[in-house]
Design goal:
With about 270 residues, the chain is mostly helical. The protein has 14 helices and no strands. Helix 1 runs parallel beside helix 12. The chain is globular and about 55 Å long. It starts with 9 loop residues before the first helix and ends with a helix. About 45% of the residues are buried.
Length: about 270
């Protein structure tokens, strides 16, 4: 699957995916269509979950980053990487060029280079930057031989699937090949109609020692699924703990606080 044409939308699309992932479980206690609409409205209307602020970034670095994203969209991946490197030189503490470089390296067939770049992003933004922690967790295990090569890139295809049926096919195929790949259990859970089956998938994923980002989203969805099953106190306990956990990412904490507020306001 050629992801290069979607290069420029990657960061923002990923952020929306994380929002929908966390909120769809809460919406599950309503009718399916209404729940999806509610999740979409929250994803598009809440400014709290924007990319980390980047004060003091030189305009030249931002311009190079934007040019690189345009080149990436056109499939000129080598040239895009060169501009992203230049942007990073001008703004060495800004994670965004390195993050996009990592994704571009992945598209270029260089998972080892992608892992190194994602690890650099993780050092610059230890509390989380989009899907960096999931990428590091996945690619590290690919490199060690725990997961087959290409597992993470296959997983990324789920985001671009045009229907639930297409998503389900990708998830099922991935879990057949790599049943210990925790992020895929999160996706499987979101495709389950019955809350009991959703909960089983979420708990299975949590049992696989996932990365902090995936663990947070699995736990968020576990909490809201429990709420839909009438276990409100347990839901509140999980969300409260997640919002304060030292190992939670910035995004997870924000989502946990917002979801907790929604649960508490619900009659």
């Amino acid at each position: 699957m050629n992801l290069a044409p979607r290069f420029r939308r990657w960061g923002f699309a990923t952020l929306t995916l994380l929002l929908l992932t966390a909120l769809v479980g809460f919406a599950g206690c309503r009718q399916k269509t209404e729940g999806r609409d509610a999740a979409a409205n929250n994803a598009s209307g809440t400014s709290e979950w924007q990319a980390p602020a980047s004060p003091g970034i030189p305009p030249e670095a931002k311009a190079l980053h934007e040019k690189a994203r345009i080149l990436g969209e056109r499939g000129a991946l080598k040239q895009a990487i060169e501009l992203l490197d230049q942007s990073s030189v001008l703004a060495p503490t800004w994670p965004y060029p390195l993050y996009d470089k990592a994704y571009t390296q992945l598209l270029s067939g260089d998972p080892e280079g992608a892992l190194a770049s994602y690890q650099s992003v993780d050092r610059l933004a230890p509390e989380g930057f989009f899907t960096t922690k999931t990428a590091v967790w996945s690619l590290t295990r690919e490199q060690a031989g725990t997961f087959p090569k290409g597992t993470y890139q296959t997983y990324l295809q789920i985001e671009w699937a045009k229907s639930d049926a297409e998503k389900r096919q990708i998830v099922e195929d991935l879990l057949k090949r790599v049943p210990t790949f925790a992020p895929a259990w999160k996706e499987s859970a979101l495709l389950q109609e019955a809350p009991e089956k959703r909960l089983a998938d979420l708990e299975h994923g949590l049992g696989l020692a996932p990365d902090a980002e995936t663990e947070g989203l699995l736990t968020l969805n576990r909490a809201t699924t429990l709420d839909s099953l009438g276990k409100r106190d347990e839901c509140i306990r999980l969300l409260s703990s997640l919002a304060q956990a030292t190992n939670s990412t910035v995004g997870t904490k924000a989502l946990a606080k917002a979801t907790l507020a929604m649960v508490l306001e619900k009659k």
